[in-house]
Amino acid sequence: MTTEQAADRLGVSVRHVQRLVSGGELLAIGTDRVDADSVAQWMAQRQGSRVRAWEEPTAWAAVALLEGAPAAWVGQAQRSRLRSALAGAAAAELAARTRNRATVHRYRAHPRALDRLAREVVASGAAGGIGGLSAAPDRCDGYVDERVEERLVQRYRLDPDPSGGVTLRATRMPIDVVEELAGGRRQVLAGLDLAGSTDPRERSTGHRLLDRALGQLRG
């Protein structure tokens, strides 16, 4: 689609679309052309909402609180305010507010690289067949330290592709914390990843997992 069409679809200015392309949030495929899949994914991450996203540490603290973890990287007063915000949130709002937990990039990779690449990321379980979904062995979806993403791109010769089978979620949160939260029994991180999908079944499953976690938080 053209830059102007993308702007109309997103409800923003052409200049804003150009900034999104420059920042890597949308993929340019030619002069004044933007990849339509990247536009759909940008919209899915925001759940059709204009709510303000939390900063990365707060987003991860929300995941931790929903998993029953302490979220020690934020102060007690902030944890209390965040818990109150979560108690009044719905699944779609939660997914939109926590989108800054990572910067999402999608790539195309050689099929033989997927197994090796999967060992270098922290998978949330979103592609593992949870919630009645089928497992997706032809996909690699996981979190990485933002400082190593470019190295993985070069090592595995990944090509940017919004419809590709590799999703890298680059974060500044210590990767050991991410790994612990990804293994949480309430599957909050998997729910957030699925809620940001453009696939209706995956998105519905993500919302269901998040609604369950929010319900457990409220008691």
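Next protein, fold it too.
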Amino acid sequence: MIIRVFAAATLGVALLAAPAAAYPVKGVPELTHNPLYKKGKLPKISCKLSKGTTEASTEKYLRKLVGCLNDAWKPIVDDYQPVSVDIKRKQDDRCTGGTEMVNSYAVVCGTFIRVQLGADWIKAKDDLPVFLQVTAAFGGVVQGQTGIGEAWWALGTDIEEEEKELNRRFDLQQYCLSGAAVKSLGRTARNWKPLLHAEDPEPKDKGFSKFFTHKPTANEVSWFTRGYKAGGPGACNTWTASSAKVA
């Protein structure tokens, strides 16, 4: 989900406005009828995580979490290739569309989950918002290894509102996949809404701050909840959903 926001910030595209018309996706079975949607629930993964407040303990936590996510998705994604996590205090901003961030974030970039690790994540005593950011980024791994990412990237349109909607469909699918993975790893919360964007990064250029609101939309919460309740990707076909459900 952060990939889309980074790209939008770079291009200066507003993403929160509802589309003026419906733009159904047709003729792209990799999106609308991907075999991923016929898979069952993710397995229950015993993932005993303990995040301290030192750099070393946080790095250990992040590596363990990514390993657990590999275990969760391997039985679901055909020919799955486990991914590694690359952790640096300062990541190359090519993975964020050239938008330099001043604190921590996780993003899928190439064949890695890349984490820029700052004091905010290191000192965080509640790991759940950090957990959600990494799990969300991992949704991009799943999209990449199932052909969804490539098919989405290949979509072309000259209609600005249609492009926004296509990007939202991609983004909201990551929320749903994230919810399924969170369920697999056994995490719970009374209210997910204040947690979904709690650890969003902050851009160095304050002109981009409007793209990082720390406030999830109703549909972001809805798709995350769908994935969580289903426990698998079968609930995550955003590409055939009505425009209202991906606004």
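About the second fold: Residues 160-184 form the longest helix (25 residues).
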